[in-house]
Model the fold of this input.
Amino acid sequence: MDEAARSGTEVAIMEATYEALSTHGYADLTIQRIADAFPKSKSLLYYHYDDKEAILQAFLDWLIDEFRADFEARLDGDAASDPQAAFDVLLDQLLPRDFDDEERTFRTAVLALQARAPHDSEYAARFADLFDVIEAALVAVIERGVEAGAFHEVDPQQTARLVLAVASGGVTWALSAETSVTGVRDALDAFVASELYR
Done:
């Protein structure tokens, strides 16, 4: 479901969920904490969603839509005519050089949700959709770069999957070990510069 198909209340609930996850993390997330970040009545949460799990699954759907819209907006801006700039934009979104406290808390919460995927088909399907969206964005930019002669002749899908795997692993590593992602990002930048960019 895209942004236009959601009611204003549903969007507000998703934004409140984002704020609550960013502030408290997954382990300490409660309906009350979502309600505290929600500008309307708590009863509206229950009108739209049965419980916290239903909110979180809807939140993942919303996150996928937001991710897709953000990618598309970024790629339609200044980076639209420059495949290398567009790819750098995607890398910055996937594997930023560092996280502020809010971003670290939020990404840790998403990682906790992702850890449920091997045991819950609903979560697995949503994360599969998210990774498909990211992979498609990477493939599109790589294809554009190859066609423009800005990138080496590579297999776009294989390269996209490698970049996505490294970026995802780098984020997981940084969050799990409470360390910086800078070293992983430097290594990914070096790979992209030598193997992808002309």
Notes: The CA atoms of residues 95 and 167 lie 5 Å apart. The radius of gyration is 18 Å. The mean pLDDT is 89. DSSP finds nine helices and no strands in the chain.
